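Sample entry (139 residues):
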Amino acid sequence: MSEFRYIQVKSADIRSAPSFLSQRRFRVAYTNKVTLLETRGSWANVSYHGNAGWVHQSAISTRVITLDPNAATARAQVSDDEISLAGKGFNKEVENTYRDTHGDAGFSDVDKAEAIRLDPASLAKFMKAGGLTPQGEEI
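Predicted structure, serialized as tokens:
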């Protein structure tokens, strides 16, 4: 019998190997169901629509995740504390409200930082030069 997991982040990168530095094969969006093939440390090998790859287990959940907050599965699978924490995210609505009450605050630096994208090869080179290793991984 197959085990399933649900994507609990906005978008999960599915990688070619169990490492943040490995090539991204594809992405799976929030709430989608993936089939668990195996686990290796903090990584899960999953399948989605016939494509397989590795995802960090922090991006998946055994709980059914739904976009409908009134659905019975959402009420049964998510605690009130989890709903409260999820509602405290910094999204466009929160940003606009904050901007309205704090007119002197600038978000351009935050936007620039969020836009930075590093290719895995450059990041691996930087980490190797600095003697850095992601916890639980080898470079």
